[in-house]
Design goal:
The chain has twelve helices and 17 strands. By secondary structure, it is an alpha/beta fold. The chain folds into two domains: 326 residues, Rossmann fold (3-Layer(aba) Sandwich); 35 residues, no CATH class. A seven-stranded parallel sheet has the order 3-2-1-4-5-9-14, sandwiched between helices. The protein starts with a strand and ends in a 5-residue tail after the last helix. Bound molecules: uridine-diphosphate-N-acetylglucosamine. The site of uridine-diphosphate-N-acetylglucosamine (UD1) has 24 residues, from strand 10, helix 7 and strand 11.
Length: 372
């Protein structure tokens, strides 16, 4: 099959491209080589699969998108800006690239001549907002964000929205109400809902995958708006202490990119996935402090994480996947543990540019009042 991967030069995209080529597909990439991710040179990343056709173009440019869709049967829409914090002050650009970029692609599917038979779109766990919790009085509850009053008192844990008692984090299933809390998350919900709506209306089988926190090789290490594992690695490799917001006990579900790519392929191949949404996570949660400590230990450095006891605007406390739907319906299960998946991220970080830009990003967020 001929497959288009938007954002195919990026972290998830390039791994997906490799897996598709490995399976014998013909792959075309549409990517604008965003300097924040790929550096200022404008060159293609060295890891990019030579067998893929590469279009240097923008998802916001109708002609580029039209050109990229020519003769294609499957589309992976992975092109997006991904910095949660940055999306809170670079609002127009995030909405343009993510929401409008998605709309431009969908316009072609609705109005242009095309041969697309399947679309897989990257959604995100961030659309859930705060995760799911269990209260011993009220059962399963879905709290909203913690209040500024509570956070100012440095009281980090989530309380039951009904009775106010302490609650325990539980896995989040796909039926949880969506409470996106950042511009990034709003645009990811847009992706999911816009793509499923157009897919349903025009009978183009479409699947939205809610990725949890991804890590692995080719993750941008010097982009300060990348995920926490890569940020900490960059800090440590530059002999700086990882900066930990809150008390470090907030947790996420870290999935290795190789597992995520497997889920992408299964979602493409299985018609049981059509017109549906799936969590793509491991079902296990790790705290941010665990992440820092595992990395410090693994790199054998004499550093302590610095707990800054501050809040990053829009952050949630806990979110990890209930991974049972994708396992039952599509037969997918993540099998790489964080400890074993980390090795290749470390090897990658050593050979790639790992300027520690975190200080600058932290200052930018603070100057905008987005950390306090
Ligand atoms: C991340 C992704 C988002 C993706 C989602 C699900 C980024 C920037 N965000 O969101 O695109 O949709 O996972 O895959 O990649 N933290 C620190 N110190 C730091 C940086 C972060 O303590 O230097 C903390 C944060 O406050 C937060 C946690 O680490 O509590 C996770 O942050 P982050 O890696 O940015 O991920 P998400 O916000 O969960």
């Amino acid at each position: 099959m001929k497959i288009l991967v938007t954002g195919g030069a990026g972290f998830v995209g390039s791994h997906t491209v490799d897996a598709l080529i490995e399976k014998g597909h013909t792959v075309r990439i549409l990517d604008n080589l965003d300097p924040q991710v790929h550096g200022p040179s404008g060159n293609k990343p060295v890891y990019l699969n030579k067998e893929a056709e590469f279009i240097n173009g923008d998802i916001r440019n109708e002609a580029d998108v039209k050109n990229a869709l020519d003769g294609v049967q499957v589309v992976f829409h992975l092109a997006a800006l991904v910095g949660v914090g940055q999306s809170m002050y670079d609002i127009k650009r995030y909405v343009e690239v993510n929401s409008l970029g998605g709309a431009i692609l969908l316009d072609q599917l609705a109005n242009g001549k095309h041969s697309v038979e399947k679309v897989v779109v990257a959604s995100s766990m961030s659309i859930y907002g705060e995760g799911a919790y269990s209260c011993r009085n009220c059962g399963k509850v879905y709290p909203r964000l913690r209040t500024p009053e509570q956070l100012k008192e440095r009281s980090w844990d989530v309380c039951c929205p009904i009775c106010g008692l302490d609650v325990e984090a539980i896995p989040v299933s796909e039926d949880k109400p969506l409470y996106p809390t950042s511009i990034y998350a709003v645009t990811k919900r847009d992706h999911e809902e816009m793509f499923l709506s157009v897919g349903n209306s025009y009978k183009i089988p479409t699947v939205a995958l809610r990725y949890f926190n991804i890590y692995g090789t080719r993750q941008s290490i010097s982009n300060p708006y990348t995920g926490v594992a890569a940020i900490f690695l960059s800090r440590i490799l530059n002999n700086n202490r990882p900066l930990i917001f809150e008390d470090g006990l907030q947790s996420r579900d870290f999935i290795h990119v190789s597992d995520l790519v497997k889920a992408n392929i299964i979602a493409m191949e299985k018609s049981e996935a059509d017109y549906n949404v799936f969590n793509v996570g491991t079902g296990r949660n790790l705290s941010v402090l665990d992440i820092a400590n595992i990395l410090i230990k693994r790199l054998n450095v004499d550093l302590e994480p610095e707990i800054v006891n501050k809040f990053r605007e829009g952050d949630i406390r806990h979110c990890f996947a209930d991974a049972s739907k994708i396992e039952t319906e599509l037969g997918f299960r993540a099998d790489v543990t964080f400890e074993s998946g980390l090795d290749d991220l470390i090897e990658w970080a050593k050979v790639t540019d790992s300027d520690d830009q975190v200080e600058k990003a932290t200052q930018e967020l603070a100057a905008k009042g987005l950390t306090w």
